[in-house]
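#struct-help
A.M.: can someone run this one for me? Single chain, 111 residues.
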Amino acid sequence: MIDHIKYQLKNWFSVDNSATSMTANGKEYLAIPKSFTVPNLQAIVDSGSYSPSMFNYPITTTKVLAVGYYNNHLCYWFNGHERNGDPNSVDISNWIVYADKIQNVKWGGTA
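D.P.: on it. Structure tokens below:
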């Protein structure tokens, strides 16, 4: 019983809290952030038509749906909300943004 309790206190793999990916058993695993901000005038891609667009105001994520590669770049698929101060501001769904173009990334957990 003591060995089992000790075992539960250890991590299977040593992963740094700031890691965005890790490799285990020959496979790459990618972290999905809890939320992030897309800066204004940053190109994002509609995942339905794959056509790029730019929004005039920053976009905050409401849900990060997936992580993967698009055009050989690490990307996040997300739903979000354009923060333009207008009560009729835009909710956006299923868009893609390059991971190196986002800001204010929150990884979850405790701070």
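A.M.: thanks! The chain has a mean pLDDT of 79.
D.P.: also worth noting: The radius of gyration is 18 Å.
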